[in-house]
Design goal:
The complex is a heterotrimer of chains A (234), B (673) and C (144).
Chain A lengths: L32 H4 L12 H30 L9 H4 L2 H26 L3 H31 L8 H34 L3 H34 L2
Chain B lengths: L16 H23 L3 H9 L4 H32 L9 H36 L7 H20 L27 H29 L12 H33 L12 H35 L6 H14 L15 H13 L1 H15 L8 H23 L2 H7 L3 H31 L5 H27 L15 H30 L41 H12 L12 E4 L4 H17 L3 H19 L5 E4 L1 H25 L4
Helix pairs in contact in B: 3-4, 3-5, 3-16, 4-5, 4-6, 4-8, 4-14, 5-6, 5-18, 6-7, 6-18, 7-8, 7-9, 8-11, 8-14, 9-11, 12-14, 12-15, 14-15, 15-16, 18-19
Chain C lengths: L36 H28 L8 H20 L9 H32 L2 H7 L2
The chains are: A mainly alpha (234), B mainly alpha (673), C mainly alpha (144).
Chain lengths: 234, 673, 144
């Protein structure tokens, strides 16, 4: 018996078997075979490797979002505990924050441009846009480490109070992720140069773009909820 | 600065006989095994076929093996605690307090993180790709990394027995006790780094399986045609992805307090110790559902197979599973009702905790209705499931009692609580693990375990568990708190003696299980599973040979409804011959073996050990080594190996011969209408 | 040659290796290169950049302006932050609710739900705990 490839009327029995989808849960019961195997529902067979790798990394980003959510929760709970030390008003330099935000945003944009270049297999533009992405990201890190150094030199280091511990950990964790991203970026540039636009390298690059955009999204959360709201609250 | 950080000869407890003897015995056994392996020439085989394997079946078996070994280790802790408490009435017992504290901490840590989790993950590894009708998980090399990182964590915990000490803070290190001020030794560090390292492995597993179940299924396998075990695996892995980052952060914050003088949970500097409890239980509650959901999946498989009927109420089972998945994130405060959040907060979480019992009840009814009207076969796996159903309901009901905040104020941290969670974990998770072990052992190894010894093991476990833990409920209601190294209340003594007897019965059960394994291996020639389907199974994993070829399916099956293998069988039985024609064989690409997992874990152990003992140069070396391993892995040019067409043909023809034989056996057993 | 992740081309007549029938899309993945595609994609990224800059500027501006009712400034910042995240998701990561993207959107929704439960749950619980359990807090805060 060969498996039928033609459309079956709804509720019909394939040769000798039980009715297809007797509970009529799938809303494509009436569709043709091709539509019924719509990959959006995963029933078209194993997805191509590109999808598998990308989706797996998307799930990893999810876990990273929850990691940052935990740090946000910790910051939200401990932000008021200053142990008599300086608070956001005394410490936050909003101009610096604005500069960091713009740098990271343009870095994200450059990364988007890089993904366009990779789709067109253009090595020159890929490397140029990736370099710009990296330089802007590095600029962000320079500003951020400068801010941290300034705070520590004023005696407002992370060991001073719970608020400062939470601040340094949340913002510092984001900075660590950016640093790891830059290392990854460098590796990607080297791999594109050494091995060209091979399929698995393009898959990894796709994961990198996801990572980089996600970092900018987290930064939006940080500058809004930590810096800006820190200024608003008493 | 010392070259070896805080490590010195004083770290080894030469003056304490118990850990020295225990450590010595373990070291001797390990050395003996390694020597035997080396002298017999098994090293190349082990390296090629197991250590560097990225095959989900091999990794699953290794996870289960790790779990079984850690079960013995954790159980020894249990025996020590029970005997101590049986003796220590108006007496000091034989375990000094600092040891007893380490023992109950190690017992819980090992049983949850290095026994229950690996067992469930191992079963999922072995079975899920087979049931989905695909060749491997989404990320096979990362799968290997996950396993070896888990093993690395287990190694670190066990090293603490002889080098330094383990934590004395219980299985969850509550501050301020776990802060540097009150736990200045390395015990808490051992705990934290071991869990952080193995936690990374578990998180990767979660990502791996969510991707596999959602994106890698056989053609035609809609969500509503997935086996129930895959649904529960999906829910469990979604919970892993969502919950394990919380654990990572919580322990990282504690480590920052300990190592860098931060003030998250300290008394000074504005720290808030209660935040640790809040965060750790926001992970901890989903964790117990991560453990129980795959066990529920095992029961669904076993009960439907051994009742000869499809699972009753598939849709409601799926909805109940996903409901448990979601609600498990809304109940975590019930672990600290008494911490003082007030009536409003307690009421919300108390009601949510009671609501989450409802979907589990739905599942129990569905299993009962599956059995009703079926022809129930009382195999060992079925006995484990029946024992679960009876015992878990009682454990669950005590859980609902504890979910009531005012009752919990009496029962919190009493033996009633301890009896409750041992009830649900042992009869829920562990019985499910044993059921899965009995059920899928033939698939993994090609021969069936001794059924008679399996049934003996079940009865001894079942009776032993109740003799050991029914007194716990009574003791809790009589006011005994947990973790007591000695006590003076005469009324408690008889119950603790009964409990000690119970643990001895469980010891007998474990000895029988070890015997079962040894005997079955010795007589494996006579108990070969030649058909690949020893239980008259219903799902796709029984449609291939035991053990399956490396590529699982030469041709991915096309799925047309639920329980596709059962349908295939019925149609083949009616027709009298195999239904699918012999396919045109082609070569198959499979992922290549990789030493990445093992080498990464090696550097993880080095880094973890160096961090624990504050050997900073070694930390740097370990991190560089781990990074270099990943870069080396990322730089390889050939990722896959090819299994040539004639090899595929040979293996598949053997499989088809087995299928025909199975058909003949079935035709004899089942009269065709 | 059949691969572990691709369909089996040797036997399944419906094998769709490499076909885009019912294919999923990935977040951040640009569409297949073709005529006119570059222009439309560039438009998407540029629009996203412009909107993000606008919203960021608005958030900083909201701090100092008198146009927003004082106690509502915090809410304005939160709303603007959510909008910026949305801009990133839609314009840079091309996230939609179409059937080929639904798994990605569902996963995101799941993560956002969990993160929300965690953050709001923690703040709610810890607020109550602090109120009930740490009366010394005010005393400590009052110290110089």
């Amino acid at each position: 018996m060969s498996t039928s490839t033609d459309a079956l009327p709804p509720g019909a029995l394939p040769q000798g078997g039980r009715p297809v989808d007797p509970s009529h849960l799938g809303h494509r019961n009436d569709a043709t075979a091709a539509e019924r195997e719509y990959t959006g529902a995963g029933a078209g067979g194993p997805a191509p490797k590109r999808i598998v790798v990308g989706y797996g990394f998307w799930i990893f980003i999810l876990s990273d979002v929850i990691l940052f959510a935990t740090l946000f929760a910790t910051y939200a709970v401990l932000a008021g505990n200053r142990a008599g030390g300086p608070g956001p008003h005394a410490l936050f330099d909003l101009r610096n924050t604005a500069e960091e935000t713009v740098l990271l945003l343009f870095s994200s944009f450059a990364c988007g441009m890089a993904s366009l270049a990779v789709a067109r297999r253009n090595l020159l533009w890929t490397q140029v846009t990736l370099l710009i992405t990296g330089l802007l990201g590095a600029g962000f890190l320079v500003l951020e480490s400068g801010e941290f150094a300034r705070m520590v030199s004023r005696g407002a280091g992370p060991t001073h109070s719970a608020f400062l511990s939470a601040f340094f950990t949340l913002v510092g964790c984001h900075g660590l992720h950016v640093t790891a991203g830059l290392l990854w970026l460098g590796t990607m540039m080297a791999q594109f140069w050494a091995k060209g636009f091979r399929q698995n390298i393009r898959h990894r690059f796709l994961c990198f773009t996801l990572f980089w955009h996600a970092l900018d999204i987290i930064w939006v959360g940080i500058f809004s909820l930590v810096y800006l709201i820190g200024e608003v609250l008493p | 600065m010392h070259l070896l950080g805080q490590l010195s000869w004083q770290a080894i407890p030469f003056d304490e006989p118990l850990p020295m003897i225990a450590g010595g015995v373990v070291l001797l056994c390990v050395v003996a095994v390694l020597l035997w392996v080396w002298l017999k020439g098994y090293v190349p085989y082990l390296w090629r076929e197991w250590i560097t394997s990225v095959d989900h079946k091999r990794i699953g078996v290794m996870y289960c093996a790790l779990a079984l070994v850690m079960l013995l280790r954790g159980f020894i802790d249990a025996i020590m605690m029970r005997t101590q408490q049986a003796m220590a009435f108006h007496a000091a017992g034989y375990l000094p307090a600092s040891h007893f504290d380490q023992i109950f901490s190690a017992h819980g840590t090992i049983m949850i993180f290095f026994m229950a989790m690996p067992f469930m993950i191992g079963l999922m590894n072995l079975v899920v790709p087979l049931q989905l009708g695909v060749r491997d998980v989404a990320f096979p090399t990362l799968n290997s990394v996950s396993f070896w990182l888990t093993a690395a964590g287990a190694l670190l915990v066990n090293l603490s027995l002889v080098i330094g000490s383990f934590s004395r803070t219980g299985w969850l290190p509550y501050p301020p006790l776990s802060e540097l001020t009150y736990s200045p030794d390395v015990g808490v560090d051992y705990y934290c780094w071991a869990i952080e390292i193995s936690g990374i492995g578990t998180l990767i597993t979660g990502i791996n399986f969510v991707t596999t179940i959602l994106k890698l299924r056989a053609p035609g396998m809609h969500y509503t045609r997935m086996p129930m075990f895959c649904w529960t695996a999906l829910a469990s892995n979604l919970l892993i992805v969502a919950a394990f980052p919380i654990l990572t952060v919580s322990l990282a914050l504690l480590l920052l307090d300990r190592y860098a003088g931060f003030h998250f949970f300290t008394n000074l500097g504005g720290g808030n110790a209660m935040m640790f409890m809040n965060l750790i239980w926001a992970w901890g509650h989903p964790e117990v559902y991560i453990l129980i959901l795959p066990a529920f999946g095992v029961y669904s498989e076993v009960v439907s197979t051994f009742s000869g009927k499809p699972l009753f109420g598939y849709r409601s089972m799926v909805i109940a599973t996903m409901a448990i998945c979601l609600i498990s994130f809304m109940v975590w405060l019930h672990h600290f009702f008494t911490m003082g959040a007030g009536a409003d907060v307690n009421a919300f979480f108390g009601i949510a905790s009671m609501i989450i019992a409802v979907p589990t009840g739905v599942k129990i009814f569905n299993w009962l209705f599956t059995m009703y009207g079926g022809r129930v076969r009382f195999s060992a796996a079925m006995l484990w499931s029946l024992g679960f159903m009876v015992s878990f309901v009682i454990g669950g009901m005590t859980g609902v009692m504890l979910a009531e905040p005012t009752a919990d104020f009496e029962l919190h941290n009493s033996l009633f609580l301890v009896a409750h969670f041992h009830n649900v974990i042992i009869t829920g998770v562990l019985f499910g693990a044993f059921a899965g072990y009995s059920y899928w052992f033939p698939k993994a190894f090609g021969f069936v375990l001794d059924e008679r010894l399996g049934k003996w093991a079940f009865w001894l476990w079942f009776i032993g568990f109740w003799v050991a833990w029914a007194p716990g409920y009574v003791l809790g209601l009589e006011g005994m708190t947990r973790r007591l190294q000695h006590y003076d209340v005469a009324a408690w003594r008889p119950w603790l003696l009964v409990a000690a007897v119970g643990v001895l019965i469980i010891l007998a059960a474990i000895i029988v299980q070890v015997a079962q394994l040894v005997v079955s291996i010795r007589t494996r020639a006579s108990r070969r599973d030649l058909t690949g389907d020893p239980w008259n199974g219903r799902n796709l994993e029984w449609s291939i040979a035991s053990p399956p070829p490396p590529f699982n399916y030469a041709v991915l099956p096309h799925v047309e409804n639920q329980e596709p293998y059962w349908d295939m069988k019925q149609r083949a039985l009616e027709a009298g011959h195999l239904q699918t024609p012999e396919p045109a064989y082609g070569p198959i690409e499979m992922p290549r073996n990789s030493a990445t997992g093992f080498v990464c874990a090696f550097f993880a152990v080095v880094t973890g050990f160096a961090l624990i003992w504050r050997i900073w140069w070694l930390v740097a070396l370990g991190l560089v080594g781990a990074y270099a391993t990943f870069v080396r892995f990322a730089w390889r040019d050939v990722e896959e190996q090819v299994i040539p067409a004639d090899e595929v043909a040979r293996l598949e023809r053997a499989n088809r011969a087995a299928r025909s034989q199975a058909l003949a056996v079935l035709a004899e057993r089942v009269p065709t209408p | 040659m059949s691969s572990p992740h691709g369909l089996d081309a040797t036997s399944d007549p419906r094998s769709d290796v490499g076909s885009s029938v019912g294919a999923d899309r990935l977040p951040g993945e640009p569409a297949e290169a073709g005529p006119g595609v570059l222009a439309s994609e560039l438009r998407s990224y540029l629009l996203g950049l412009a909107l993000a800059l606008l919203l960021t500027g608005a958030a900083f501006w909201a701090l100092h302006t008198h146009l927003i009712y004082g106690p509502g400034i915090m809410m304005a910042i939160v709303v603007l932050a959510v909008a910026q995240m949305g801009v990133h998701l839609v314009f840079f990561l091309h996230l939609t609710s179409a059937p080929d993207n639904i798994n990605n959107t569902l996963a995101l929704a799941f993560g956002v739900l969990m993160a929300g439960l965690l953050i709001f749950g923690s703040v709610w619980v810890m607020n109550h705990l602090n109120h009930n359990m740490l009366p010394m807090q005010e005393l400590i805060r009052m110290q110089p």
